[in-house]
Every structure is written in C-alpha cells, then in structure tokens.
Amino acid sequence: MSHVEVMTGNQAASTAACLARPDVIAAYPITPQSSVVEDISKAIAEGKLDALISEVESEHSAMSVLEGAALGEARTFSATSSQGLAFMYEPYFRASTLRLPIVMAIANREMISPQTLWASAQDSLSVRDAGWIQYYVENNQEILDTILQAFCVAEDKRVLLPINICYDGFYLSHMSERVDVPDQAQVDAFLPQCYKPDHIYLDPDRPMAVDPLTNGDLLMEYRQKHLEAQQRALTVIEEASEVFFNLFGRHWDGCVEAYKIDHNTKGAIITLGSMTGAAREAIDRLQSEGLPIGLIKIRVVRPFPKTELRELLSGIKAVGVVDRNVCFGWNTGIIYQEVLAAISGSPSIVHQPFIAGLGGEDITIEMFETAARQVVTLAQKKNGSRDQETIWLRSVSEEVHK
Amino acid sequence: MSVLDVLDRPDVISPGISACVGCSVELTLRTVMKVLGRNSVLAIPPGCMGGVGVVGWDKKSGAEIPVFFPLLTNTASMLSGLRLAYKRQGRDGIHVVAFAGDGASVDAGFQALSGAAERNDRIIYICYDNEGYMNTGYQRSGATPKGAWTSTTPYGKLQIKKDMPRIMADHRIPYVSTCSPAYMKDLVEKVEKAKRNKAGFSYLHVLNPCVGGWGFPPEESIEIARLSVKTRYFPLYEVVNGEYHITVDIPNPLPVSDYVSRLKKFSRTSEVALTEMQELIDQQWQELKALEQVGVNGA
Fold first, then answer.
1. Please, are residues A40 and A28 in contact by the beta-carbon 8 Å criterion?
2. Distance of CA B226 to CAs B28, B77, B234, Å?
3. Which of B40, B49, B58, B74 to mutate to test the interface with A (most CBs of A within 10 A)?
4. Whole-angstrom Cα distance, residue B271 to residue B276?
5. What pTM was computed for the model?
6. Which residues of B touch A94 (CB under 8 A)?
7. Measured between alpha carbons, how far is B184 from B4 in angstroms, rounded to an integer?
8. Which of A95, A164, A373, B33 is the most exposed place for a label (fewest CB within 10 A)?
9. Out of A23, A61, A211, closest to residue B85 by CB
10. How many domains does chain B have?
C-alpha cells in the first residue's frame, strides 16, 4: 500500500526516480537540484536502490553517460538546473535525435546574468526546441506522479523520446508538502519491466553502426519521424495519465488542465508550473465576485497541446498568459508566443501577455487578480485591439531602484 | 604469440574506408581491433577516422562490430555509460574502446576523458595523435609541437605540445602507454595489456605521422614514425600501476634535426628553435629515466 510522507520537491523527484527502478543514473550537483542526486546516491549506497551511478565531472558528461548507458539498453535518470542544462546542451539535443528515452528532472532556475539562483522556466523553455518532451508540474505530488508517467511515455514504442519533468526551483524543490508515495509493487505494475530497445543499441551480439554520416534525404526522414513521434506523444501522455489514475487514483489531466471554465467563462488566465496554485486562489476569489474568468494550466509544452487548448478556448473572448520567463525579441514571455501560435486561427480572441516572477520573485494572488481583471476588461470591450503590450507584474515599483 | 599471428586475425574494419594514401592511423586502427576482437564496441569521435567512414553501415565502409560517433567532446563519458550498462547486465567481457584523435582527446574532449580516468572506469582509450585537427584542414591543437606549421599557425605554433601521456599517468590509472605504428610488436603487446586490464582505465597514446598535415611522401609514414622514436622525440614507454618503464630504449639517439628536416611543417623552424626543441627532448628523456627509477608514486 501507499503511504504519506512530507517531502520536498527534490525528494519527490528522487523518490519517483528510485521507484522507477533505473539501471544507470548520472547527475552533477547544481542548485537547486543538488539534493536529488544526493538522495539517489544515498539510496544506492545504503542498498535501497539496486542501480549504478556515475559520479560525473559535469552536466555535459552526465547526459553523455546516460546516452551511452541507454545505447547499452539501460533505463536512465538524471536531474539538473539552469547553467547545468545550458552546459549539457550539446548531448541534450542529441538524446532526442538519437531517440533515447532518458528521463530528467529539471528544478527550474533563472539563467544568469545577473547572477541568480532562483526560479524561472527560462532554462528549460530556452531548450524547448531540442526535441524532448517537457512536462511542467505544479506541486510535489505531481512531481512524483509525473516522473513515473514519464518513464512510461518515454519508453512507449510510439514515442521513444527523452522527457523533462520541470518544476520551479525553491518554490517546489525546497518546499515540503504532503506526498502520497506509492509502494514498489504498484509502480512495478504501472511501468514496463525494463527498457529493451529494438531501434538503437550498441551490442556486440547485434552489431549496428550508430549515427553514421547521414545524407539530407535520410536525415529529413528521421526528423519527420521525430516530429510525428512528438505528436503521437500527445495521445500517449493522455493514456499514461488515465492508466495512472486508474491505478493510483490521482488525475493530472494529461497535457492541459481547465480550472473552472464553463460556457459562461469569457476570460482565461494561462499558467505553467507552481504559480498555478496562486492563480487558482485568485480565480476562486474573482468568480465569487461574479467575474466570468477561468484558468488553464498547461502541463505539457512539448509537444504543445494546440488542439486541446483551442477547444478549451473556443468560447473565450480574451486570454492572458502569465510567463515566468521572457521571449527575447518578442517583448513577451515564451508561453504567450506558444499560445498565440495555437490560437492564430481564432481571430476573435484577444490576448494579453504578462511577465512575472523572474529570478524567483513571488507571483502573488493579488498579481493574478490584477491580471485576471485586465483579461475580463479586455473580454468585455467591444472591438478592442488583439495585440496588447506586455504587462510586467512586479511587487516593487521601478522608482525604488532609481 | 607473435605479432604475425595477430596480423592474420580477421580484420573487423571494412576494406573500403577512404583514408589518405600512406595514412598510419588506418593501419593502427586495423591492428588495434585485430587484437581486441569482435567482442568490442568502438567509439570513433569526429576526426580523421570518422571522416573516412569507419562509422559506416553497409559493410563496404565502416566496421563489422558495433561502432558509433560520440561527440567530439564526450567520447569517454559516453563509454563510461556503456560500461555501466554492460556491468549491470554482467557482460564484463565486452571491450569498450575509444579510438579518438588528439583534438577529441587533449582539447575539446579532455574534461570528459579526465573525468572518466579519475573515476577509473574500465575503458580502453586510444588517442591517435597526428598533432592537429587534420580532418578539418590541419588546424593547430594542444598536441601540435612548438614551431610546427598548421593552417592556424602559419608562422609556426608558439607553444609547446601538451604532454598527454604524462597527464594521463598522473591520474594514477592502471595502464598508460605510448605506441608507434613503426614498432608493431611493442604496439600489439601494449594493446594486449590494455585488453587484459580489468582493474580500470587504459590509455594508449599513438603518435601517427600525417602525410598531408606534416608534409612528407606517403611511402615514408612508417619511417617518419620510427624517426620520432629514434630521436627520442616520442619515447615509447608504459606506466603500469604508477610504475614507469621505457619499452623501447634509445641509448644512442639521433639528433632531432634528422626528424625535423624530413617534415615540411617544420620548414620555417630556425636553428634557435631547433636547439630549444633538442633541449626539451633531452629534458623529457631525463625526466622519463628518473620516473622509471622512482615510479610515479615515489616508491
């Protein structure tokens, strides 16, 4: 039977990783992820986890070790943050183009400069086009549950792609919450027994040349199949979510979650990750005032769930996207641009970008109320401009720093 | 066992690879893999052997054993991961082999290589050192010697060559050696030792003269390699568990000018530079002799 523990987000991640029975783990310490690798190392040292760990000298090697291990038919896990992810970029990209189902947690942290340690999805969103699947989760229970689901999705023959489970540094990585921990037998019943590839491997008994110099025509075929696998993942993620619900009783709504949206809703706030908690609270307050505003949490950014999002927004007049990251060159956040691309065929929807919470700044319930009221105003305006300037939600006025 | 017996073994590298005429790296690779055999996985990072098609797939180019391209920067760490996967499966007999150029070893791939050596992962890492980025058009590397022309040091390199075998020996790994395609018996014996080393990391550093990049006639490859040893420019030695041992003693060395004068890449080398080079060679030989006496542990 499962049991309840109070644990940090990082503990939830390491607990899930251990339950998934990985063969090989490699990770390099970086704040705020470090305790994930510490806890896994401890579990192995104490004999609680039967796995091998490589104490690598860098994130670049962490990902490289896992690629070698996955080519040797091992189930693999790692964790990283910001600068570590950036240093890992070269093998990171290749994990997806080699179609290796590596699972890696990312405790989201702002990118320097200025020097910083705190939360922002700038790190993982900046590599959203490197071919991985990316989940963004809201709380510690969802970290644990999603890592388990990720192994299931990654190793599915219809997908065979690496997966990130992204969660906000400190807000989740270091915050303690109640987490329901399934027992090993339950997880064993949920996950495939082992990773046994038949598409790419290095085995003297079955010689294969892995990744020879490849002409453009064949490369295009590989890319096309990679993109198709990403699209199939939308279905596989929903399936994994359903199967998980049936076994464990917790439902995480696949790729997108709608919160308090019905046929009367005129405006919607879109969120990612841990900020969703404060957003729920703000929506509750405003709905009690009678404002027609709801919430959409995007749980999967790659593949982007455009069809589902369009359906959820079909009756909506205005949408506001709150980004804890920036999209350089667009003067907005990244998720705003993603949403814009998804709803480009719906000219009646007005859209408002918000940027908040960079470098670990708190995104308060009041900020969400401000954002939501702005969206409702836009929804009620006749013939308003579709393009709105970004609103920066800040707790301290700019004058303070002058 | 004689060297000839080894050379009669099946060649697991396909016949059709497109190395330059007179390339001593191809000969080295074929020989090394004859020793290591089919129960091996071969990593060939970007470089000459990647460029000529050893990571091939149609049995006309490539290899008949599992072979792959690591990145230029992660050869050793990818092999660390492979080794762990095989360990997990109890497949300890598989040889996990890197055959990497000096760029992938002493420069861009150095961090991963040093990390894997420090962890003492059981990998056979062979660096074929042709003293530059020869596959991309003869650019300078950390292994290029002082004074040598490359396409990025048109008036000669200003800095001395990184002494990679000594650096690797200072990781205190179980086995390090230097090898030459001109001394095949010595090379084969050293690969055999690496093959038998179950205790951890093996690093073999082979100096491979490059016909195009160094500037000499293709038929002189082996002769140039032999001269590099006979002038003590490239001493042949091994370091077994910290104990240094010169495997090919050169009691009466030829002057380094006999070697330098044969290579177009040193055509701008001045008398002063040549004297400096001779001094460095003499000093390094003395150090090697001293290390042979005391062992790297000072025992």
1. no
2. 14, 33, 9
3. B74
4. 9
5. 0.96
6. 71
7. 10
8. A373
9. A23
10. 1
Domain definitions of chain A by residue range? 3-248, 256-401
User: What burial letters (b/e) apply to B175-201, b meaning 16+ CB within 10 Å?
Assistant: bbbbbbbbbbebbbbbbebbbebeebb
Task: Write phi, then psi, for A308 (nearest 5 degrees).
Answer: -60, -40
pLDDT tens-digit profile, chain A (402 residues): 899 999 999 999 999 999 999 999 999 999 999 999 999 999 999 999 999 999 999 999 999 999 999 999 999 999 999 999 999 999 999 999 999 999 999 999 999 999 999 999 999 999 999 999 999 999 999 999 999 999 999 999 999 999 999 999 999 999 999 999 999 999 999 999 999 999 999 999 999 999 999 999 999 999 999 999 999 999 999 999 999 999 999 999 999 999 999 999 999 999 999 999 999 999 999 999 999 999 999 999 999 999 999 999 999 999 999 999 999 999 999 999 999 999 998 888 999 999 999 999 999 999 999 999 999 999 999 877 777 999 999 987 655 555
Q: B134: left (phi > 0), else alpha (psi -120 to 50), else beta?
A: alpha
CATH number among 3.30.70.1170, 3.40.50.920, 1.10.150.20, 3.40.50.720, domain A256-401: 3.40.50.920
Residue A67: which of B39, B78, B94 has the nearest Cβ? B78
The reply to whether A3-248 and A256-401 are identical in fold is yes
Contact (Cβ atoms closer than 8 angstroms) between residue A390 and residue A334: no
Task: Determine the distance in angstroms separating the CA of A92 from the nearest CA of chain B, rounded to an integer.
Answer: 11
Tell me the torsion sign for CA atoms B182, B188, B190, B195: positive
Among A90, A206, A213, the residue with its CB nearest the CB of B73 is A90
**CA A164 to CA A146: how far, in whole Å?**
10
Fold type of domain A3-248: Rossmann fold (3.40.50)
User: Testing the interface with B: which of A65, A66, A99 to mutate, by most B Cβ within 10 A?
Assistant: A65
Tell me which chain A residues have a C-beta less than 8 angstroms from the C-beta of B73: 60, 90
Six-digit token pair at A236? Answer: 């596989």
